[in-house]
Amino acid sequence: MPSFLVEVAYTSEAWSVLVNNPQDRMQVVKGTIKRLGGKLQRSWLSFGDYDVVVVVDLPDNVSAAALAMAVSAGGSCKTVKTTPLLTPEEGLEALKKAAASGYRPVAPNPTAS
């Protein structure tokens, strides 16, 4: 099953609610992921650009998009970033396909000065 990195930034209003009423939001998120056919692998609170980082397994890109849409639509998060994760084997396969793709980069114009 494909894995995805999901990074979330809470709104200041959501932080206010969480500070005044601390709660484990991963229980809610875990249920949502399960209903989408997936599994929560790991989760962390963080600081910087994102407040929560999770790694989830989901059946497909549509399920990953549905998770991002559901979380975004809730209004507690100002940013939800979802990144597909490749296994080393998938990365190697992608490298081989890239090498055989026939892509040619933009060539400089030899007559331009």
Written account of the structure:
- Helices cover 39% and strands 27% of the residues.
- The protein has one domain: Alpha-Beta Plaits, CATH 3.30.70.
- A hairpin with a 6-residue loop joins strand 2 and strand 3.
- A four-stranded antiparallel sheet has the order 2-3-1-4.
- The protein contains four helices and four strands, in the order βααββαβα.
- It is α+β, with helices and mostly antiparallel strands.
Structure at a glance:
This protein has helices spanning 12-20, 26-35, 61-73, 88-99; strands at residues 3-10, 39-45, 52-57, 77-85. The chain is an alpha+beta fold.
Given helix and strand content, the structural type is alpha+beta
Note the run of SSEs as H and E. EHHEEHEH
Q: CATH H-level name... which superfamily?
A: Lrp/AsnC effector binding domain/regulation of amino acid metabolism (RAM) domain
The whole-angstrom Rg is 19 Å
**CATH architecture label:** 2-Layer Sandwich
Residue runs with pLDDT of under 50 for 5 or more positions: none
Our measurement of the CA-to-CA distance between the termini, rounded to an integer number of angstroms, reads 52 Å
Figure out the total of helices.
Answer: 4
Mean pLDDT: 95
Number of strands: 4
Main β sheet profile: 4 strands, antiparallel
Broad CATH class = Alpha Beta
Stated plainly, the CATH topology is called: Alpha-Beta Plaits
Report strand order across the widest sheet: 2-3-1-4
